[in-house]
Amino acid sequence: MNHQEISEVRRTWSLVSSRMPLFAQLLRARLQAVGISQPGLSAGEIEANAQLLLRLIGISVNGLNQPRILYPLLETLGRENSLGMFDAQRKCQIVRALLWALKAILGPAFDRKARHAWLDGYRRVAQAIAAGATEAREAFCSAAEPEMPVLAGKRAISFLQRSKNATAAVSRFGSQVVLA
Questions:
Q1: Pure H helices in 34-179
Q2: How far apart are CA 41 and CA 39, in angstroms?
Q3: What is the pTM of this model?
Q4: Domains and CATH numbers, the chain
């Protein structure tokens, strides 16, 4: 993303921030309308997941100009949720709901330029999450192959080391977000 696109995402997110309860309600409703539901969860758990999604969006918006910190954080998220949570269909549903909610809350302020910037930002965030998920699945599958124990062990150690490094980056980045 270039500086102008990052600025556009941040500008529009700051407008959303002043109306966050309404935005959260719109986004939750739209996610349910496009088929993303969370059966078996209590209302409290669904609300907690919604708050986590909003925090993820906020962290991503604030970190777009710091990809060396943001992307390891997102890859860690992908590794920890590697069992299909971020599959292609779900990513499309989430971006549609996000763009719809942004347009609903911002009206004319969410113009073509803003939409393009959000799409590019979302694409980058989703790619980083997917990269972590793919890495986790590959490490798991390699570890399950009995004829390749040495390679599997090396992959697992490498995977754990990168996760540890990414977790440290998350801690550093989290403190920056609070101050931002």
A1: 43-63, 67-80, 88-106, 112-143, 149-179
A2: 6
A3: 0.69
A4: 3-179 (1.10.490.10)
